[in-house]
Amino acid sequence: MPRIRGTHGHEKWGDRAMLKTTSDRDRIHSDAASPHRRVLCRSEAVGGSSTDEVVRCMDLDVVVTHGAGLDVHKQVIVATVLTPTVTETRSFGSLTPDLLALADWLQACGVTHVAMEATGVYGKPVVNLLEAYPFQAVLVVNPQHIQGMPGRKTDVQDSQWIAGLLRIGALKASDIPPRPQRELREIVRYRASLQQARATESNRIQKVLEGANVKLGSVISDVLGVTGQRILAALADGVIDPAVLADLADPRIRASRETLITALTGLVNAYQRLMLRVPLQHVAFLDRQIVALSDEIATRLAARTL
Questions:
Q1: What's the mean per-residue pLDDT of the chain?
Q2: Where do the domains of the chain lie?
Q3: DSSP calls for the chain
């Protein structure tokens, strides 16, 4: 008698099931109440074709009649369509014309639901484009929900397996926010990464100052504040007189002029001036980018509240 392993935590030998959890028992009982429903299973290939066996098994419990499964990679997308009249697998490239051809083909086949594994950046353009088409649902599924299912050995079988799981309603879509929200989230995250890069440059500048025995960070709270950047720019340009550097400080800082002169007395050579000048230029660039992103975030947030 052939052995079949189910995806709901039990094993079947013919028509008998060895249950492992209470939830599995409830699921199987509810399925057994209808003679037309069967627990999702995967057996050995029949006649050398595991694809035919999978589709036959899934046809016993159809939830989505017109579905498609996509297996997305960097340069190729394998798509399988399962409808009452079409069972076909095709491969497409990942360029925009290829994605348009994929979406047009899915529409021509009458597909209403599309499912794909979450594949990071490779899947984003696919989702963005398919959302512009009138599909009823575009599901992005956590790969961990599918990885435990045996029998997936090639890209073609992957897309067929996803399409079959979609057909019987076995896929749980990840929570994908609307595109404007996704874009806002990416902008916020990018802004945070730029702020982290700025902090890294600040630490690098602090090390250079310590190497020159310039204790600027000991007398002002923010080395990259208005006063700090004035003094650092002067140091990078070759100004070494502590009194001249102290005169660049904002009058509102707490440190006295004498304290500044003492802290700014150091030994700055050509190498250290270079290692101050380049990070300062990078900080200035980062500041402009952070301001631009902050303005964009404010604009998008204001539009959401209208």
A1: 79
A2: 1-39, 44-167, 179-305
A3: --EEEESSS-EEETTEEE--SHHHHHHHHHHHTSTT----EE---BTTBHHHHHHHHHTTS-S-SSEEEEEE-SSEEEEEEE-SS-EEEEEEESSHHHHHHHHHHHHHTT--EEEEE--GGGTHHHHHHHHTS--SEEEEE-THHHHTSS---SHHHHHHHHHHHHHTT---B-----HHHHHHHHHHHHHHHHHHHHHHHHHHHHHHHHHTT--HHHHSS-TTSHHHHHHHHHHHTT---HHHHHTTS-TTSSS-HHHHHHHT-----HHHHHHHHHHHHHHHHHHHHHHHHHHHHHHHHHHHH-
Cα–Cα distance for residue pair 116/127, rounded to 1 Å: 9
**In what side-by-side order are the strands of the sheet with 3-6?**
16-18, 11-13, 3-6, 41-42
State the pLDDT at residue 158.
Answer: 83
State the pLDDT at residue 93.
94
- Check: CB of residue 160 under 8 Å from CB of residue 89: yes
Q: What is the reported pLDDT for 104? A: 95
Buried b (16+ CB within 10 A) or exposed e, 4-20: bebbbebebeeeebebe
> Which fold is adopted by the domain 179-305?
Helix Hairpins (1.10.287)
What does the pLDDT read at residue 105? 95
* 259 within 8 A of 219, measured Cβ to Cβ: yes
How far does Cα 38 stand from its chain's mean position?
A: 36
Q: Is this structure's pTM higher than 0.85?
A: no
Q: How many residues does this entry show for the chain? A: 306
Number of other CB atoms surrounding residue 272 within 10 Å: 18
Residue with tokens 């007395």: 265
- Residue range 44-167, CATH number: 3.30.420.140
Instruction: Specify which residues 137 forms β-bridges with.
Output: 113
Distance between CA atoms of 32 and 26, rounded to whole angstroms? 10
